[in-house]
Amino acid sequence: MKETTAAGGARQRSVEVVVPVYNEAHVLVDSISRLHAYLEDSFPFPFRITVADNASTDATWQVATDLTYQLPHVHAVHLEQKGRGRALKAVWSQSEADVVAYMDVDLSTGLEGFLPLVAPLLSGHSDVAIGSRLHRHAAVVRGPKREFISRCYNILLKLGLAARFTDAQCGFKAVRTPVFKAMAPHIEDNAWFFDTELLVLAERNKLRIHEVPVDWTDDPDSRVDVVRTARDDLKGMWRIAKRTLQGKARIDVPRRENRSYVVGQSPTAPTPQEKVLTGAGAR
Fold first, then answer.
1. Which of 23, 201, 258, 275 has the CB geometry, 3.0–4.6 Å to 68, for a possible disulfide?
2. pLDDT of 163
3. Which of 10, 5, 66, 9 is nearest to 267 (CA)?
4. If you write DSSP's letter for every residue of 112-172 in order, what string do you get?
């Protein structure tokens, strides 16, 4: 992402939004086009959208590549292995933006919540930000089974790991880039537990987590294996608990610097050839 400056010479702060995808060719054009249009029209900071293809077996990679030619702030990265956490690590660890974020490709979370999500990180007020479907001011539409599982999981986190955040798995999160780069080597999970591990490590290291109540509508096409994900999450909780007891949860992370930020237009878009990359370490 190219650095931009305002008229007075102050550097504008920027955000990179990652959308991890696996076999999502059928929805990718609509979702990324909507996200791009919203950010261009309503988001007052320089931004980049990166589609992270997790070893899709359908036409997802071709569609993502085509989008990089059609939309000026869209990039694409291809990874040879699956895993949401793996995709986020690959892109976030190489990002040049001040804040890195991600959202699910179905855009279940209302985009109006994106600026409230990242603004406290851009200003230096907070380190991590999460959308919460369990916040008392959230507006959520989903079935009773998914609601029950989500609430039970977060209760387990509170009881087992003394977690204070309200919603670990909402696909709508952001973190200050220097903070994530310091934490990345200590996050072991490459799949769905990645979110929880990130948040628990942030709390263990006294980082400030900002929560945003979101409008959220369940995606009926979701292909998440709830049983397997729950089993993996329980294993991850046990692993973190042991690491904490062994005193291995402390990380040297950059501290916040409260600062004013500059609002401005998005930076000049790179050429399409600069926007398409492959490989686990690509960006």
1. 275
2. 82
3. 5
4. GGHHHHHHHHHTTS-SEEEEESSSTT-EEE--HHHHHHHHHHHHHHHHHH----S-S--SE
Closest C-alpha to 132, from 164, 92, 88, 99: 164
d(C-alpha 173, C-alpha 107), whole Å: 13
Residue 38: half-sphere exposure toward Cβ, Cα within 13 Å:
15
Q: Which residues of 132-158 are buried (b: 16+ CB within 10 A; e: fewer)?
A: bbbbeebebebeeeeeebbeebbebbe
Beta pairing class for 47-54 and 74-79 = parallel
Catalytic residue, candidates 53, 127, 167, 195: 195
Q: Which has more confidence, 136 or 275?
A: 136
Residue 98 DSSP one-character state:
S
Q: Is the pLDDT of residue 166 over 80?
A: yes
Nearest to 95 by CA among 37, 32, 174, 40: 174
pTM over 0.85: no
The amino acid present at 19, given as its one-letter code, is V
Question: CATH: 3.40.50.460, 3.40.50.150, 3.40.50.300, 3.90.550.10. Which one for 15-253?
Answer: 3.90.550.10
Going by C-beta distance under 8 Å and a sequence separation of 6 or more, which residues neighbour residue 206? Answer: none
Range from 80-94, 160-174, 244-258 carrying the lowest mean pLDDT = 244-258
CA angle at 110 for the pair 108 and 116, rounded to the nearest 5°: 130
Helix (H, G, I), strand (E, B) or coil at 198: helix
Handedness of CA 187, 189, 190, 194 (dihedral sign): negative
